[in-house]
Amino acid sequence: MGYQAGQQPDNDIRPSVVAGRFYPASAATLKLTVQKFMEDAAPVQVKNPLAIVVPHAGYIFSGQIAADGYRQAANHSYEVIVILGTNHTSGSFRKISIYPGDGFSTPLGTAMIDKDVVKALLAADSDCVLDRSLHQQEHSVEVQLPFIQVLFPEARIVPVVIGTPDIDLCSRLGEALAKCLKGRRALIVASTDLSHYPDAETASDVDHKTLAAMEKLDPALLQKVTQTQMKRAIPNLHTCACGEAPILAAMSAAKAMGASDGKVISYAHSGDVSIGERDRVVGYGAVVFSTDPGSASVKEPDPAAATGPDAPLTDADKIALLAFARETINRYLTTQTVPMARGIGPGADQPRGVFVTLKKRGNLRGCIGRMIPDKPLRELVGTVALQSALEDPRFKPVTLPELKDLEIEISVLTPMTPVPGADHIVVGRDGVLIRKEGRSAVFLPQVAPEQGWGRDEMLDHLCLKAGLPRGSWKQGAALSTFQAIIFSEGDFKSAS
Q: All domains of the chain, ordered by start, with CATH?
């Protein structure tokens, strides 16, 4: 039985080394973080999971995909959970390291090790050794523990670090695991991220090939696919799966335990979250190996499906975007993580510039936007909502207690259109961007009416905002206009 938070067993316990970095250091915050991810997790899609593949990056980037994987097993009761970790720390280690102590601690307490399974593994596979050094700074095992402690508090663990993705080494381990876990209520967790550091589009292409190979439950095929991808000399692609060895071992074990196939549950990369950038990303996937027959893959969304410039943004989409903006701010302030943009219609898939405006009792409290979108609207709303709350240089960062007093307004922008002069600007209809002498500034369409400005007065204030003298718009300035779909929480209060 696991120890609860606050209890300190007098045993050989490996302390947490990434609390406060990869996940929250506060027990209450960490538990809330896991619970929030689980609330948003993908629905159960398999009946009898034997092994799951989940990421091990910082929770703010990969926690939701990890929760999607754990959700597939959350309705089951396990005696033992084997965590197959990635070797990030020792390039010379070529065996399989099992932690020789009694347990691993996190802010949630201590997860105790199943010594019987450890003993059986050491006897069944000569590649397995007791080696503390591989675990001392390794995060890939540790970051799985909070999910396990919240979802399976009675389970014991077997922490394993596989030295290298040698297919024979991993196959022997998989067969040994199947033998040692026979008759036990057991789950295997393979801890891995996917592609490292290409741009978002490349990562998605590479990762979906890797995930498709995982579904085949064929270790040799997976290794062939990853090797083929690496031979393409893709810019900034450092690896297709940093935990390839855990995946190989989990596949071998699952097959020996009767698994019939694999199923991709979800996929994302670090650029998909509100704080992520898309020019250099890491990929994450949740995969389940189970005895369920005929599971089908989660398909990559069709980028041409209802995402063109005429895709409608419905009232339901607007309500969902406002709720997502609020939850992004709230989640960051409470857990230092962010939600993923889910449950929003296809109208939010298109790339559109967007501003998020925060008002407190009618007064401006923050407003930041992005004119040129680098990600779909659904994701960009979260990005600029967080920036409006925390990074507007005119205001102090928003605090959690005042969030309830804020009203959120979203302005979804049309593309910019250069205009030859001020007489082409219609106050109340057009937002305006001015560029001159290396300076620029923008006003949303609603700013001038809210301030009671006419066109010329609005342009004078726009010049001042850009750090230019009044009247600078009259000569040598580049002016562009745009329109906006503007909606706020107040617009839908009667509907709620």
A: 3-290 (3.40.830.10), 304-352+360-411 (3.30.700.20), 414-496 (3.30.1490.150)
Tokens of 60: 């703010």
CA distance 6 to 259: 39
d(CA 495, CA 475): 48
Q: How many residues does the chain have?
A: 496
Mean pLDDT of the 390-403 span: 97
pLDDT in tens, 217-243: 999 999 999 999 999 999 999 999 999
Query: Is the per-residue pLDDT at 4 higher than 90?
Result: no
Which residues lie closer than 8 Å to 123 by C-beta, 6 or more apart? none
Phi, psi values for residue 358, rounded to 5°: -110, 130
pLDDT for 311 equals 66
* Residue-wise pLDDT tens digits, 309-350: 556 899 999 999 999 999 999 999 999 999 999 999 999 999
Rounded CA-CA distance 153/77 in Å is: 10
Q: Helix, strand or coil for residue 278?
A: coil
The answer to whether 27 touches 5, Cβ cutoff 8 Å, is yes
Confidence grade of residue 8 (pLDDT, cut at 50, 70, 90): very low
Q: How far apart are CA 135 and CA 18, in angstroms?
A: 12
Spacing of C-alpha 302 from chain mean position: 20
Cα(129)–Cα(167) distance, integer angstroms: 18
- Quick one: 25 exposed, middle or buried, by C-beta within 10 A (0-12, 13-18, 19+)? middle
- Would you tell me the crossing angle of helices 115-124 and 167-180 to the nearest 10 degrees? 130
Mean pLDDT value across residues 241-259: 97
- The percentage of the chain sitting over the pLDDT mark of 70, rounded to a whole number, equals 94
Give dist(CA 285, CA 275) in Å, integer: 19
Task: Output the average pLDDT for the chain.
Answer: 93
Residue type, 285: G
- The continuous run of DSSP H or E covering 104 comes out as strand 103-106
The sign one gets for the Cα dihedral 131, 286, 2, 138 is positive
Amino acid in position 136: Q
Q: Using an 8 Å Cβ cutoff, are 71 and 148 in contact? A: no
